[in-house]
Amino acid sequence: MNPNRQPTAEQLCQWDRRYYWHAFTQMAEYEPLVFDRAEGCVLVDIHGRRFIDGVSSLWCNLHGHRHPAIDAAVRGQLQRVAHVTSLGASNPTTIMLAKRLVEITPPGLEHVFFSDDGATAVEVALKMAFQYWRQRPEPRPEKSLFVALEQAYHGDTLGAVSVGGVERFHAMFGPLLFRTLRVPAPDTYRTPPGVPSERLLEHHLRQMETVLAEHHQQIAAVILEPLVQAAAGMIMHPPGYLRGVRELTRRYDVLLIADEVAVGFGRTGKMFACQHESVTPDLLCLAKGITGGYLPLAATLATEEIYNAFLGHYAESKTFFHGHTYGGNPLAAAAALACLDVFEQEKTLEQLPAKIARLQEHLERLSRLPHVGDARQCGLIGAVELVRDKQTKEPFAWEEKRGIRVCAAAMSRGVWLRPLGNVIVIMPPLAISLEQLDQIAEAVEYGISQQFGN
Ligand SMILES: *Cc1c(COP(=O)(O)O)cnc(C)c1O
Fold it and tell me: What is the structure's pLDDT at 452?
């Protein structure tokens, strides 16, 4: 290629602002951040600046960027075929991945429906749950409502937004949404007034039970993010909540949809968050980490009972009439299979406890800083919540952009982070080294001290 035809860094920034409309970004204030390449857990921008990828490129990278085994798997697949439709057709790579996912997910999940993003994995689960009640052997079509947690985030398509509950993102679209029953999020930091922490679990399970007891005849499913409500600001549930909700949904004959789009694939210290509480949901949504952060792919896993309700002669119209053009794409499936191989070869899960312990040390130190209300952790997910008042937990107004400012300062220390409002998220690739974890924590501490001058 003619080197003179390569755009300059300045041109790229200009064109980025002018042509490229970015997700969750106020374009009027957007400052171009243009990553050109990566090495392991480090991203390099077009100016040659290096940043540790402290949020796994939005919670999806696991084994680092440009991992030789995953790169090779994608290249290998390119030599066979880049895309085959999942509509009435298949390919060896995606078949292998379906089998592998059934083997590693909680027992009882037997069938895999592929799509291409977390939101679509959720849409699929919602529609499957709805259709299941209409065509199972004893149909109960009146079971058509969903129960979701307050501040839930399940993606940005309208079905996912209907069961979502992050006011700032979702309130605007209220008129477009279907009705959902809401249950307060069991938040271990912002506990309800008058509820001591040792009674938090019981309190929230009772709230769930109240809704199920009253409406179970109309409820198709409960959907939740197991253990951690990620986009809500890494809200962490008390241990036992997931298991308790699983027991309640069985008692009231309601399906359970577990959205492990953010917490799946090792983030919590185990392969899947449901495994911490020996729970098998009826439907399991996976995306983000499934390809190690390489390519768009998502999966919705279902039990035999749900799958069977969709079987019949063509004319019975029990078919799941739903599909996404690139669902189960072989290149993405090749990356996903290689990603699972790397888990085994590099003993990724076995390496995690040391990293989790190191993160814990850092969070304990950060929690003592003024204006840090809480520094919470689940596996290799860390969250540092900035508050105006540590005693009352009074938050900063989101317009003050406290989180954004801390992360901007952290960038000057070579660490890229993206906050959730007042919550600084530390969610590096699982392959992060202890030294890099130290650098991330140091950059966060620096960012906070720059903000508050302590
Ligand atoms: C990110 C996320 C989604 C949406 O996934 P996309 O791939 O962005 O559509 C759904 N659920 C949870 C829990 C998520 O964190």
Answer: 85
Predicted pLDDT at 5: 82
Instruction: Outline which parts of the chain fall under CATH 3.40.640.10.
Output: 71-345
Per-residue pLDDT at 114: 98
Distance in angstroms (rounded) separating the CA atoms of residues 66 and 339? 12
Q: Is the dihedral of CA 29, 424, 9, 429 positive or negative?
A: negative
Block residue for tokens 């019975």? 316
Question: Which protein residue has the closest C-alpha to ligand 1 atom 5?
Answer: 118
Q: Do 301 and 135 form a contact (C-beta atoms < 8 A)?
A: no
Asked whether 39 and 66 are in contact (CB, 8 A), the reply is yes
247-280 residues labelled b (16+ CB within 10 A) or e (exposed) = ebbeebebbbbbbbbbbbbbbbbbbbbbbbbebb
CATH 3.90.1150.10 intervals, the chain: 9-63+347-452
Q: Is-contact 228 234, C-beta < 8 A?
A: yes
- CATH assignment of 71-345? 3.40.640.10
CATH superfamily entry for domain 9-63+347-452: Aspartate Aminotransferase, domain 1 (3.90.1150.10)
Largest CA distance in the chain: 71
State the DSSP code for 396: P
Q: DSSP H helical segments within 318-367, as ranges?
A: 330-345, 348-367
Pocket of ligand 1 (CB under 6 A): 117-119, 122, 153-155, 225, 230-231, 259, 261-262, 287-288
Nearest atom in ligand 1 to the alpha carbon of residue 157 is 9
Ligand 1 centroid – CA 384 distance (Å): 21
Ligand 1 atom nearest to CA at 287:
7
Distance CA 187, CA 392 (A): 16
Residues of the chain with pLDDT under 70: 1-4, 454
Distance CA 288, CA 299 (A): 10
| Distance from residue 174's CA to the centre of ligand 1 (Å) | 19
Q: Is there a contact between 185 and 232 (Cβ–Cβ < 8 Å)?
A: yes
- Ligand 1 centroid–CA 269 distance in Å is 19
Helix and strand numbers, DSSP H then E, in the chain: 14, 17
